[in-house]
Write a structure and sequence with these properties.
Order of helices and strands: EEHHHHEHEHEHEHEHEH
Distance between the termini: 18 Å
Largest sheet: 6 strands, parallel
Number of helices: 10
Helix content: 40-55%
Shape: globular
Radius of gyration: 17 Å
Strand order of the largest sheet: 5-4-1-6-7-8
Strand content: 5-15%
Structural class: alpha/beta
């Protein structure tokens, strides 16, 4: 087993979830009598958890009680419909299997509700990850470091020996707050310019580059 761990974001990094997120958002908006949102709007809104997604999707000025109601409706609908249009990005499964075979401990940490994270990771990735976790009550979501640091502890790897892989500015900040190297992927929900403006330094343009990019970062961690 290697002494470098890889912690992955989920949405926009491993899975293309945007259509199911849009559909769940619009289910809630329609049920509450509000206008629907486009896929591009939802793409901009995701990254900071489902409740924040609903805050941004609802009309400005909605009361907290309305946001809470929308969030509960979203969670219930998305739990049952989170696999209808979702799937791994091309090349992701092969890269993950190769990394696992090479001995990297791996985990998923997402701001998605934990119930959906468990369903999706089990269905699409089987036993590739040692730890999978989403947002749960009582633990600050990313970019706070709490979830990621707790996961590193479960993996038995020091934070400075972990690589965090994600597609968003939230992931860049999460890695920085956790004392980890960050690898920013460019096939997800944010573009290179936004990531660079957020402080991203290491990029991966396609899943078939993941192994090489991770090995380069691993060498930088261990001074090779």
């Amino acid at each position: 087993m290697k002494d470098t761990a890889i912690i992955w974001d989920l949405d926009g990094t491993l899975l293309n979830t945007i259509e199911d997120l849009k559909n769940a958002t619009n289910h809630v908006l329609t049920a509450l009598g509000y206008p629907e949102r486009s896929v591009e709007e939802v793409r901009r809104f995701v990254g900071n958890g489902a409740r924040r997604l609903l805050e941004l999707a609802l009309p400005q000025g909605c009361a907290e009680q309305e946001i809470d109601r929308a969030f509960m409706m979203f969670e219930a609908f998305y739990r049952d419909h989170c696999r209808e249009c979702t799937g791994p990005y091309v090349g992701i499964l092969g890269a993950l299997r190769s990394l696992k075979e090479a001995g990297y401990p791996m985990a998923v940490v997402s701001n998605k509700p934990d119930s959906a994270v468990q369903i999706l990771c089990k269905d699409y990735f089987g036993d590739l990850f040692t730890v999978t976790r989403g947002e749960i009550i009582g633990c600050p979501r990313k970019p706070a470091p709490d979830m990621v640091l707790q996961t590193a502890l479960k993996l038995g790897i020091r934070p400075e020996n972990c690589i965090y892989v994600g597609d968003s500015d939230v992931d860049v900040k999460t890695a920085r707050n956790s004392g980890m190297r960050c690898l920013s992927v460019l096939w997800g929900f944010r573009d290179r310019q936004l990531l660079a403006e957020s402080g991203a330094e290491h990029f991966c343009e396609a899943p078939d580059q993941l192994i090489d990019r991770i090995r380069i970062l691993e060498e930088s961690i261990h001074g090779k």
